[in-house]
Amino acid sequence: MPRTVILGVIGSDAHVVGITILEQALSAAGFEVINLGVQTSQDEFVSAAKSHDAEAVLVSSLYGHARQDCEGLHDELDAAGLDVLTYVGGNLAVGQSDFEETQATFRQMGFDRVFDAETDPEEAIEMLREDLQLTTTEAEQIRVDG
Amino acid sequence: MPTDERLSDDQLQRIANDLRDNWHTGREVDFEEAIAFHESLPASKQFATVLESADQPLLQPRAGVPCLEEQIDLLRYLQDEGGADLLPTTIDSYTRDNEYEKAEEGLAASRGSDENELNGFPAVNHGVEDCRRLIRALDAPVEVRHGTPDARLLAMVTLAGGFQSFEGGPISYNIPYTKRHDLATTIEHWQFVDRLCGAYTERGVTINREPFGPLTGTLVPPSIAIAVMLVEGELAATQGVRSLTLGYGQVGNLVQDVAALRALRKLGNEYLRDEVTVTTVFHEWMGGFPPDEARANGVISLGGATAAVAQPDKVITKSAQEFQGVPTKEANAAGLRTTRQLIDMMIEQDIDLGGIEEEQALIERETRALMDAIYEAGDGDVAQGVINAFDSGALDVPFAPSDAAKGAVLPARDDDGRVRIFEFADLALPDDIKEIHAARLGERAETEGRDQSFRMVADDVDAISDGKLIGRPTGDNGPAGGASDAD
């Protein structure tokens, strides 16, 4: 049975290219992807995770306001009784800040994994498989290109 | 659902009256008195006159800061040190969302500090008189550049303020910019904007309109961009617009870019009614830039070279600081001069490139197929047709964030770096054209020793910022044989 993941760009950010590519990559890797698109609120992430019985919530942000936009997301997930894996990725802070610091900040907020904008989809999918304890045979459509 | 019919004078008046109270500066707008202001401007500040009489591509940057004096200084600098022929005023994001309260706060905060608290010039908040101060202070014509789905009040204030060109359109400022605006509403809003431009035009003050050609700025196949330009052009012409500048964003393949600009001009003249003067604008690369400024200058130079060959009427320039965001005025002016150098060195050369005619014929055939599908979807009405075509996916834009488009079409470059369509979804193109695209992408897959897949799309999106054109496998985990030139 395919594992369901929720995907979306949080806040008022309209950068769609990254999640479009991620959606394709995740589907090709055998996941059931619920793509909420750009300009998605915390509520929309939480209710989608609940109604689709998702195993992971993947949050994208590229315009620098990720910290403000994600503040309280994990409380909302807890309040909804959801114990899901959460990832965040993109350009998470304005300017040239140190990624390790950014990573620590978002880990503190409750994200299981934090990615920068340079991360390949394959890398994130690999970790998702690891975190969900999926073997490659479970997602049989996988084909690693290039 | 709107139809492609001209708004009556009563409708124009009624909507204008309703908008007047959305922000206090709306009440300063007086059409008769605005006509008199425009009539007082010399020919050198008449946008359509300058653009339509030019004998080689005119250069225009993007630029907007919150405060009036700083905006005047910035534009003077770009005019004097960059040699800009046409000037812009880029509007801030709050105004684009019609959040005039927030723009007011940002403007006040910017006035009290050295920092710019807005990412552009909040023209509605400044009002008619400040816009006129800006127009008076400069030597060249000025265009309003923005990204506003509902730009009705912005148009009322800025046109009364002396601007004579207004960027955008109901599709090009909806589909790439926002998620939840439905197309029927943005078409109605832009019918008002276009009718207002038409009303000025009928009084002898030609307002130039410029649909935003690059759309999502990310590997948009030329025929999709051109179809959107033709639709917005037709909608504007119905409302009385008589000066239209159709746009196209550089994809980076020289032959395809030249072919697309020629197709755009040809189809623009063919589809739009005879009373309309059609000009074209070429946008230097709108996708991700290399972080290295030297390499970024290379991208800009290729844009200048393309413009020298294709000779659009106007070029929107980029700066080498594009990767970091809004450039300094020095970098912005340098982007203008770099482009100018390429154009001036190349424009008199007789450059014969192979394959342009064939590529242009393909683009034209695709565009005609899309336009036929649009008319059919609206029973001959282009407004209804474009709404229905986006709804069904017969017309679609890659990487569109809007709920009004499927966003299911995916592009990829072929072995020559031309943008082809990898995933057609429901795009209304005939099978023989789809086969051409598939064959070209097949050649690339063979060269690279990998299957056609979304991975190519992802690699292509990053390729130019990574210093290449085509997203070849880098060789660290892929098979050998790709023409990759890893650095």
TrEMBL record, chain A:
Cross-referenced InterPro entries: Cobalamin-bd (IPR006158), Cobalamin-bd_sf (IPR036724), GlmS (IPR006394)
Location of the B12-binding domain: 2-135
Pathway: Amino-acid degradation; L-glutamate degradation via mesaconate pathway; acetate and pyruvate from L-glutamate: step 1/4
EC number: 5.4.99.1
Protein's UniProt keywords contain Repressor: no
HAMAP family (alphabetical): Me_Asp_mutase_S
Listed name of the protein: Glutamate mutase sigma subunit
Species of origin: Haloarcula mannanilytica
Gene name as annotated: glmS
TrEMBL record, chain B:
Keywords assigned: Cobalamin, Cobalt, Isomerase
Signal peptide start and end residues: none
Pfam families from the UniProt entry: Met_asp_mut_E
Reactions catalysed according to its record: (2S,3S)-3-methyl-L-aspartate = L-glutamate
Region (Disordered): 466-487
Residues noted as binding adenosylcob(III)alamin in the record, renumbered to the chain: 64, 119, 176, 289, 318, 322
Single Gene Ontology MF annotation: methylaspartate mutase activity
EC numbers for this chain: 5.4.99.1
Residues reported to bind L-glutamate: 62, 96, 145-146, 167, 173, 177
Highest rank taxon of the organism: Archaea
One GO process term, biological-process aspect: L-glutamate catabolic process via L-citramalate
Pathway it works in: Amino-acid degradation; L-glutamate degradation via mesaconate pathway; acetate and pyruvate from L-glutamate: step 1/4
Cofactors named for this entry: adenosylcob(III)alamin
NCBIfam families in alphabetical order: MthylAspMut_E
Protein task: Catalyzes the carbon skeleton rearrangement of L-glutamate to L-threo-3-methylaspartate ((2S,3S)-3-methylaspartate).
Recorded family membership: Belongs to the methylaspartate mutase GlmE subunit family.
Subunit-level organization: Heterotetramer composed of 2 epsilon subunits (GlmE) and 2 sigma subunits (GlmS). GlmE exists as a homodimer and GlmS as a monomer.
Name of this protein: Glutamate mutase epsilon subunit
Organism of origin: Haloarcula mannanilytica
Lineage, top ranks: Archaea, Methanobacteriati, Methanobacteriota, Stenosarchaea group, Halobacteria
Record gene name: glmE
